[in-house]
# Entry
Amino acid sequence: MPQHVQGVIAPGRNEPVRVETIVIPDPGPGEAVVKIQACGVCHTDLHYKQGAINDEFPFLLGHEAAGIVESVGEGVTDVVPGDFVILNWRAVCGTCRACLRGRPWYCFATHNAKQKMTLLDGTELSPALGIGAFAEKTLVAAGQCTKVDPAVAPEVAGLLGCGVMAGIGAAINTGNVGRGDTVAVIGCGGVGDAAVVGARLAGAAKIIAVDIDDRKLDKAREMGATHTVNSRTADAVEAIRELTGGFGADVVIEAVGRPETYEQAFYARDLAGTVVLVGVPSPEMKLELPLLDVFGRGGSLKSSWYGDCLPSRDFPMLIDLHQQGRIDLAAFVTETIGLGDVEKAFARMHEGDVLRSVVVL
Ligand SMILES: NC(=O)c1ccc[n+]([C@@H]2O[C@H](COP(=O)([O-])OP(=O)(O)OC[C@H]3O[C@@H](n4cnc5c(N)ncnc54)[C@H](O)[C@@H]3O)[C@@H](O)[C@H]2O)c1
Ligand SMILES: [Zn+2]
Ligand SMILES: [Zn+2]
# Structure
């Protein structure tokens, strides 16, 4: 029997989000229905609401979640009802050309549920990143459920489902930060601070946090940044070079998603260094760089999808490190809120004192 639950939808471009009744079908083959316990508010949800990802309104927002598997469809063996899971938005297929070459974190054919969740009038919803977890329950592909230790609070575990994994992975997987490296992180929201945590975990010697808000910089320092730069009042490139003996950082992670911050990242890295773009740009943005500088400065320019993570490998590992006290995932939770507070949480994103607002159900 299809179920009726409450969920947060974005009805149209820049229209305020609202709580609506959502119809959740029974899980079909390879699918699971998950009872959501917590879901963080990520900047990507705001991008969806603004129409900056695509035009497939209405969206069922929310994609950074943990919960309990309620029911599974035919053929599902990896998870069973009652399992505590983090939802992931890149369930690898195992058969595409990336998977077959042994690079499943690049999987080009990731799985989502085949059936659609709808509004009461039958309007099909587009779940954000194939998840849609600002809702009491959601329907996903079973491969999107990654089982982890239920001893960790859902509002903490769920953060690994997007921003925190994206940031940590941008440093340790995509950027391949190593012991003794100098690292700069531009944009210190949830994703950027997670990159700071990842850089520290990987043994970076110097971690320079750059933001336009001093409160974000204070927080980045608590998370492990060794130096901070307010790029509203200082030139980010000059400041990073000064802090790295005049050379620039080995790895610069861009966690804003704008051409001007990308350009800063490009010029703030040392020769043969690495730029990692983890911030998500919008469709109209363009980048112009002298091709000779791209060539002459060497190194690599990389994008980081979901921190190039493998959920089944990385979620349990990071939960372990959290439980051992080697990383503090709870430090990312600024406030817990209700389903009706998502619009307010979007507004608070720009206020500077929030890393993550987490909807708790
Ligand atoms: N690649 C991925 O897999 C992935 C996953 C999750 C989120 N993201 C993206 O990462 C980005 C950050 O997400 P978030 O949730 O941390 O957002 P957020 O809003 O919490 O943080 C953004 C931070 O950037 C700072 N900022 C804004 N403009 C700046 C500028 N010009 N210079 C320096 N700092 C600036 C803000 O003060 C804020 O601290 C977004 O673009 C989001 O869509 C990417
Ligand atoms: Zn694949
Ligand atoms: Zn996200």
Notes: Residues 94 and 100 are 7 Å apart (CA to CA).
